[in-house]
Amino acid sequence: MASYDGFEYDVLIVGSGAGGGMSAHILTEAGIKVLMLEAGRDYDPVEETPMFQMNHEAPLRGVPTPDKETFGYYDATVNGGWWVPGEPYTKAEGTEFLWWRSRMLGGRTNHFGRYVPRFNDRDFKPFSHDGLGVDWPLDYDEVQPWYDKCEKLVGVSGNNPGVYDVPDSGEGVLQPHAQPRVYELLVEEACKKLGLPIVPMRRAVLTRAIDTREACFNATDCGRGCSIGAAFQTTTSVIPWAKDTGNLKVLTDAMVREVHLNDEGKASGVTFVNKKTREDVRLDAAVVILAASACETARLMLNSKSERFPNGLANSSGQVGRNLMDSTGANFSGHVPALRGRPRYNEDGLSGNHLYIPWWDYEGQDNGSVKFKRGYHLEIGGGFGEPGMGVGGSADGYGASAKQMVRDNYGSNISLYLRGEMVVNENCFCEIDPDVKDEWGIPVLRFHWKWSDEEYNQVAHGLEWSKKIIEAMGGYVTTSGTTPEEALLPGGEIIHEVGTTRMGDDPTTSVTNKWGQCWDVDNLYIMDGGVFASNPHKNCTITILTLAMKNSTYLAEQLKGDA
Q1: CA-CA-CA-CA torsion for 150, 293, 123, 365, nearest 10 degrees?
Q2: Of the residues 94, 202, 226, 302, which has the fewest C-beta atoms closer than 10 A?
Q3: 212-265 pLDDT, tens per residue?
Q4: Checking DSSP bridges between strand 34-37 and strand 328-335, what pairing results, if any?
Q5: How many CB atoms lie within 10 A of CB 192?
Q6: Half-sphere exposure of 313 toward its Cβ, with a 13 Å CA cutoff?
Q7: Containing domain of residue 317, as a range?
Q8: Is residue 215 part of a domain?
Q9: Under the phi-then-psi rule, with left for phi > 0, alpha for psi from -120 to 50, and beta for the rest, what region is 338?
Q10: pTM exceeds 0.85
């Protein structure tokens, strides 16, 4: 057993987001002592979350600013984003890629969309269905009971609609789903006309209070964080629960630079930079869990070189940093005259979708009538939201008539957001830049990225069907990007990067086994999205949480000798 500042611990976890937080909860509940390192600052969502501030109280009415450049002034990411001061990354020539980092306790769980659809049996075996990529070393039946346990703990609202792309949860697992808004009902009618499924979105947002967490009161943006615990984040659930056991100690502002090996080839601990004092601190550990996010974990492993592993820790396969994937993203918009001038009311609800359109044409993919192999879903945006800068709608002329046009147009636009699966390819990976270091002296990542025809064909399909849906609502398309090349967003922009330390059955082509345990270093585990063997079109957080729950339970059994 190792110790730090008088605290003795069995396991050291790097990262406090979905994977790290869940691992800490499972291990500490089993009586195992855990030391957690977080590169970002401490964060208290109860005290710091700007839940009730209004846009007019913020600079530029809450729109993105240089220090909050994507999701706006009130975004819960307090100390991170696409560009972290002093912590650059580089891109190979011709690469367009964005890397989001949340330098704070709880990581991205403080601001993520809380969309939590589970993968289905086909998602775990993509190669067996279409011959592209690789299969996972586990199947849906193995993961299904863990999805149930995880959804129950997280507090997922939704239903079992009987749609193949939306696997059923167990009886009594899901909380009641939110009721659809007016504009979503119009989309629903359009989908019925076109023969498309449309179902309640699975959300990691409570509609009924559980344990110490309150139910959502449908009035604030989940992206700001949630001080009442209704929208799931590790800082209001699994991390406080783990602390309550007395078995967890958390160190923030601890930037890990290297994982060490002992003479037997086992992980023996880490060195981190204390960002407040700028001093290096070395810690021992019997077991190390890396859950720093897919690319950060890969960076740490690639920087941890030794005589045994000259190309990076646990990298005999050469797969660390390879197989980088993100969700495809494309945004389509339209104007729906039927929504013009309707009465004003609070349409906040659970921020984000109440309904969405899951993938519907597996048959077309199998018979070749659909010209891409992996699916997508369409998320829905629209309705009445708190005004920010600008008038939010076109207006001709000036004076009273122009003002009335703006009022009438308010809430009459619809957005459809394509989020799809990319097929893994050899052109997408991250490596260590040979020249550039961050302010802590740690070599940074260099990204390589290239979409394939699979993704462009998928977006072309999404453009076609989004137009059909908007027109079936009696609207017209207002999207400016009319080709797949124009519409497809850069890699990384959807913030679903995974795959850089993938699991598998073969140590020569994968980094970990199905438990997240590294083939080359058996006391080194990976509990973040890096272990994904593919990246289904469904948002990845619930599967990261579920695998961390499953794999940490396995690890706890090993440590306690119960296996």
Answers
A1: 140
A2: 94
A3: 999 999 988 898 999 999 999 999 999 999 999 999 999 999 999 999 999 999
A4: unpaired
A5: 12
A6: 30
A7: 1-158+222-323+424-448+496-563
A8: no
A9: alpha
A10: yes
